[in-house]
Amino acid sequence: MVTIHDVALKAGVSVTTVSRVLNNRGYISESTRSKVYRIMEELNYHPNEIARSLLRKRSNIIGLIVPDVSHPFFAELANHVEYYAYQDGCKVLLCNSHLDPVKEKEYIEMLKRNMVDGIVMGSHTLQVDDYRNLHSPIVTIDRQIDEEIPYISSDNYRGGELATELLIAKGCKKIAHICGNLELKLLANKRSSAFRDVMSRHDIEYVIIQTDMNVFDHAQYGSIIERLLREHPDVDGIFATSDIIAAFALKGCIKAGKKVPEDIRIIGYDDIGAVSWFEPELSSIKQPISEIGRLSVELIRKQRDGEPFIRENILPVELMERSTT
């Protein structure tokens, strides 16, 4: 097995020089740098990444834990986190928790063993103490779990306002709000708070339907829509807190013989890339998913390098009106 000593001997330089080239430390002439890289290639030398991580006290690996990577929002988030991590010289370890606390804890232990530079938490099934005891850079997405841990969220309250106000402006007289389970302490619940506040201000009749605790279980969405239309046939507006739920609402309304948007108007949340695939095209509240991914990587880097960072990061949203409203 080729070692760093073999590279140094053939290149005619010291082991320290080879180490500086590998770690990009100190002044090294371009000719020496090129020579060392050429010898490494000739000898097929691959640095021991674990040893280098111990030396540098960094691995250039970021852990990303999501509840369901098949969900379009988290798929897009993972795509952006990986892109910006790579631009920053890091790789990403993707962990799919499926909202299973045992599985999530096993993933966290694995990430700790691999000495990742930090963890982006998109899944939150563990108790807060499990996060506090990590002693590692953390960024949470859409959940505030500690005064010291930075978090990123879209402006959920404003998003809820925009969606509800649009349906009212379009003349809706009875509006249904379909959301995740509000017992989960997520910042996304502010979308529902905004819905209630706006509806109360306008004194318009409304109904709120929550999913069960497994908010990403698509199988329940169809039955929720069927029950809503059966029990409240006069509903003429639906605000769903995800585009996937909104897509099921669109499908269910068409199946029930309702025209969209003539009989009922629908708006979702997230503005995932797939909304343009639907017919009619789905109105939505756009979360800046790319910026969430970029900022996640930046906050990990700043914590890792001891730089000052902002703990509360609330990003603006945008109303994207399309054919369903």
From TrEMBL:
UniProt keyword Cell division, yes or no: no
Q: Which SMART domains does the annotation name?
A: HTH_LACI
Q: Which domain of life is it from?
A: Bacteria
Recorded hits in Pfam families, A to Z, give: LacI (PF00356), Peripla_BP_3 (PF13377)
What InterPro entries does the database record attribute to this sequence?
HTH_LacI, LacI/GalR-like_sensor, Lambda_DNA-bd_dom_sf, Peripla_BP_I
Which CDD domains has this protein been placed in? HTH_LacI, PBP1_Qymf-like
GO molecular function annotation: DNA-binding transcription factor activity; transcription cis-regulatory region binding
Where would I find the HTH lacI-type domain in this sequence? 2-56
Keywords, sorted A to Z: DNA-binding, Repressor, Transcription, Transcription regulation
Q: Which PROSITE patterns match?
A: HTH_LACI_1, HTH_LACI_2
Q: Know the name of this protein? A: LacI family transcriptional regulator
